[in-house]
Design goal:
Radius of gyration: 15 Å
Largest sheet: none
CATH class: Mainly Alpha
Oligomer: single chain
Number of domains: 1
CATH topology: de novo design (two linked rop proteins)
Mean pLDDT: 94
Length: 118
């Protein structure tokens, strides 16, 4: 990987985490949503943070381990996004679907990195 591609994915994961937070601010805060929002905020931020950690890894094994965490957190983010109830705000469906798609794309990217690094 070149530094440019590392930066691009660092930026992409950062933008993803910010977009999730922006979406969550628009969701109605009922009891279930509050808990799911806390979880999705953590997991989306973890994708970005662990990717930065992977780029600063001390060994190939550490790099692969961190990328696997990124993949796991991206999958988890997708779960939490699907659990958040927006029935009262159908206008959020498009944003929700875009975020779910981005979580899936990141999962596939991290899966590819793991396969190429193993």
């Amino acid at each position: 990987m070149t530094n440019n591609s590392n930066f691009d994915l660092e930026q992409r994961t950062f933008i993803f985490a910010k977009a999730v937070r922006s979406y969550c601010k628009k969701v109605s805060p009922n009891i279930a949503n509050i808990q799911d929002i806390k979880q999705v905020t953590r997991s989306s931020g973890s994708v970005a943070a662990n990717y930065i950690e992977a780029n600063e890894s001390l060994s190939k094994a550490d790099f692969v381990f961190r990328i696997k965490i990124c993949r796991k957190e991206a999958k988890e983010t997708k779960l939490w996004l699907n659990l958040i109830d927006i029935q009262d705000k159908p206008e959020l469906n498009e944003t929700k679907n875009k975020l779910i798609d981005e979580a899936q794309q990141l999962t596939l990217i991290f899966n590819s990195i793991v396969k190429k690094s193993s």
